Each structure stands twice: as C-alpha cells, then as structure tokens.
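If you are new to this repository, start here. Below is one unmodified record pulled from the training split, so you can see the exact layout before writing a loader.
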Amino acid sequence: MDLTDASAGPDDGADGGGDRPTDALPNAQLVRLSLYWLGLSSIFTGLTAILSGRIQFDGLGDRGSEGTTLFALNFAGALIAALVQPTVGSISDYTISRWGRRKPYIFIGSVLDVLFLFGIATSNTIVSIAAFMVLLQVSANFAQGPFQGYVPDLVPKRQVGTASALVGLFQVLGNVAGFGIGSWAVATGNFFAGTMALGALELVTMISVVWRVAEGRLARSRDGRSWLTIARAAWGADILRERSFLWLVASRWFVLMGANMLVNFATFYLAQTFALSQGETGGTNILLLAGTVLGNLVAVIPAGRASDRIGRKPVIYAACFVGGVGMAIVASAPIIPVAVAGAALFGAGVGMFLAVDWALMTDIIPKASSGRYMGISNVATATAGIVAVMTGGLAMDAVNRGIAYGLGPRVAFGMAVIYFALGALFLRPVVEPRRATLRA
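And here is the target side for that same chain:
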C-alpha cells in the first residue's frame, strides 16, 4: 500500500469541497456496494447465537450465570471496536493506494476475520474465546470503518434513500444468515462448522466489493501531518460542533440496544422460559427468525422510499414504536406463536430503522471526512450490543437467581422497550435537512 501524500482533487461527479457526487449509479453498482454488509452483519449475529448455545448446552459457564458469561466473552472486544473503527476510518480518508483508499483495509480485515473465527471455533475456555473475540473485533472494524465511507463517497443525493434501503436490506439479510447459521449450529451441536461458515460468507461478499466497486473521491491531503496525527485527529473536539450528528449517534445507540436484545437472548429465552431442549431451541429459533425476516422484508424498502417523501425522522419514530410494541409482545408471550408474531413486528421496526438511519446519517455528516464520521457513528453499533448484553444479561441472571429461573429473559426483553423509547426521545433535537434542499 502506498501511503505517500497526494493532494485531493475533484473526481468525476464530485467537487473537492466535500459535496456529494452528482452522477447516478447503476442499480447493479448500488447492490454491489451494499453486498458486503451481508457478510459483516452475519458474523457477530451468528457468533452470538453460537456462543449462547455453547454457554447454555455445552458447559461453557455455570447455570444461572449465562448472561454474565456472554458479557465476559464480548466486553473487551466491544471496547476495542469502539476505538478501532473511527480511527481506521479516518486514516482511510487520507490513504492512497493502487486499490483506492478503502479496499486495502476491507481485504486485510476480512482475511484476518477468518483466522480469528478459527481461533474461536477451536477454543474451549472463556479466556481464550474472549481473547480471540478481541482480535476479531479489531479485524472486523479495521474493514468496516473504511467500508462505511463508500455511500457518502459514491452515491448522489437523489439515490441516498435507495442506497440506504439497500444497506438496511443487506444488513437484515446478514442478520438472517448469521442467525440461521447460528441456530443450525445450536440445533445440531456443530459449533465449529457454524463458526467457519460465517467466515466463508464474509469472504465471498468481500470479493464482490474489492473486485467490482469503483472508487469515489480522491484521498484528502495530509498537509504534511504524520499518520499518528491523522489517527488522533479522528477524535478531535471539532466533532462536538456537529450537534445533530451527536444526537443522532445517541439515538442510534439506544435503538440498536433494543434491537440487540432479541438476538442476544433468544436462545436463553427459549431454553429457560419455555424449557425447550437443545434441538427444540435451535428449531424454534428458526421460527423466531422467520417472523423477524418477514417483518424486515415487508418494511425495509417501503421505509427507505417513504423517507425520501416525508423525511427520515418520522420513519425512525415509527420504527421505534413498532419495534417497541413487538418486543413487548415477545416479552409477555404465553406461547411460542405469540412470540413469533411479536418477532415479526419487532423485525418490521428494525427493518424500517436500518433502511432510514443510514440515509439520515449521510444527509448530515461532512462528506469529505465520511470515513471518520461514519466510523464514529458506529461507536454506537460497536458498543450497543455489549451494553445490551451487560444490562440485559445482569438483569436476567439476577431475576433467574432471585425470583424464578426462566423469568429473566422476559425482563431483558422488557428493557428493550425502554431502549426503543429512549431512541425516539434522543432523535428529537436532530435537525434534518429539508427534502427540498436535498432535491435542489
């Protein structure tokens, strides 16, 4: 990789001032641009299901401390992810190479992901799995931070709604694929094959991006600054002036915490609350997945299109409401079919949010520093899961030990309703650009 300095300049369809490109992208390019999200999203969704299965059924941890064990496996890695992604994303804004400024990071991070997944699959202690989870978070976010800059780099304003909906769709499909692989691994007890299947899926989707996605704007000039200075600048205080961006990151954090609850605790919910066996838990997880997917697919594309007409914030408010109602139904469901119906509503809310959240984020960030800002925005993504595991897991264990074993997962799901409400509350101060301004 050639990291020598060069002055940024205007590229096709974009100016050097940080505005969006103006040339429309073909639909095939928009799909290819979003495809890598399928592989990225599948990894930690699938791993959560697999590790939950190993904790519940394979003797990894003690009975009554399942949530605490899951938290211990993920805690350090999530903190590392919050540091790596914005830093590497910012560095990629200035990177010059024959592959462009994003692709080297995507390729290297994806290859390392497979190596670290193998380490997780072959480890049998909490300490060793947690160590490989840290390394996996480093490599995955090494790839994801730069990759997120592609939408602001390449997509013109009139296609942002469509591009964001496709990003949401492939994130949903990635969650589906990861959850499906994880559920199969739990049902069959084949945790090694399930873990490695996640790595294979990411490699395939990575190749589609590195091989075929065109580069956008040229790298920014470092103006003589060292790479250490660039890395430190990713956390500069100037970002505090972007008030709407900060409020949106806070809103995203709470919504994603609510969205993470079902994924993180579905295995415990079925095994503890409904007393299902290992095989029954894996099979019923597929039913919950089917309900969630149905809601996702019904909502994600219409939500992206609606946000182009009525604005992003109204759609996100609706997403928080629908997702919260869905989780309330799952938390209180007396039988599995009711839980599946709640999962469908939950899936619709999450699909609406994923379709529109990216569009609003790309509307308000400075485009020339898209790698940095999108990386910082995903501090919410990196930490939401672990905070959800911490709060929900500790509450689940406390209720299971102190009141009744099996009631704990219901309490964790009830907390998700509160997180969706807080996500809507923190969205209020965000100033959304007028639709007419974006169309001009």
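Two things worth knowing about this chain: The chain has one domain: 27-218+241-439. The chain has a mean pLDDT of 80.
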